Amino acid sequence: MKILILNGPNLNLLGVREKSIYGGQSFEEYFETLHAKYPNIEFSYFQSNAEGAIIDKLHEVGFSYDGIVLNAGAYTHTSVAIADAIAAINTPVVEVHISNVHQRESFRHHSFLSKNCKGVILGFGLDSYRLGIESLL
Ligand code: DQA
């Protein structure tokens, strides 16, 4: 089984950025724990701060992978283009967020992506990614 974990803007700074919201662990460190927990899953990981690069990645894997766990960061709340890319591919996408966006500023309450995703998991810290993987299994 092949699963891509796809992180959007500023998520390369996990462990450094706004620790009270996003925690103190880097994604690379957390990613190691996923490998250990799911030895039979073939994981890929991609992070980009660029909207087009995220769309290119969705196109690249979206007709062959078994699932995509996507945290599009702030593009969640702005990007019709990423929403369209999710609708265009065959691979199911689970939208995840580290923070509970509904407890935060109102501009974070709307997602352009959710409608085209299999489901949404948010507010469980980095464990949101594991729960996203579980939902694909
Ligand atoms: C986020 C929530 C977004 O509103 C924010 O822009 C992020 C991270 C989360 O994982 O909680 O960059 O997607």
From TrEMBL:
Enzyme Commission designation: 4.2.1.10
Family annotation (InterPro entries): DHquinase_II, DHquinase_II_CS, DHquinase_II_sf
Biological process according to GO: amino acid biosynthetic process; aromatic amino acid family biosynthetic process; chorismate biosynthetic process; quinate catabolic process
Residues involved in substrate binding: 71, 77, 84, 98-99, 108
Annotated site residues (Transition state stabilizer) in this chain: 17
Catalytic activity: 3-dehydroquinate = 3-dehydroshikimate + H2O
Gene3D superfamilies recorded: Dehydroquinase, class II (3.40.50.9100)
Molecular function terms, GO-annotated: 3-dehydroquinate dehydratase activity
Catalytic residues as annotated in Swiss-Prot or TrEMBL: 22 (proton acceptor), 97 (proton donor)
Annotated pathway: Metabolic intermediate biosynthesis; chorismate biosynthesis; chorismate from D-erythrose 4-phosphate and phosphoenolpyruvate: step 3/7
CDD domains documented for this protein: DHQase_II
Keywords recorded for this protein, A-Z: Amino-acid biosynthesis, Aromatic amino acid biosynthesis, Lyase
Cited function: Catalyzes a trans-dehydration via an enolate intermediate.
Quaternary structure, from the entry: Homododecamer.
Family: Belongs to the type-II 3-dehydroquinase family.
Name the record gives this protein: 3-dehydroquinate dehydratase
Organism for this UniProt entry: Sphingobacterium alimentarium
Source lineage: Bacteria, Pseudomonadati, Bacteroidota, Sphingobacteriia, Sphingobacteriales
Gene: aroQ
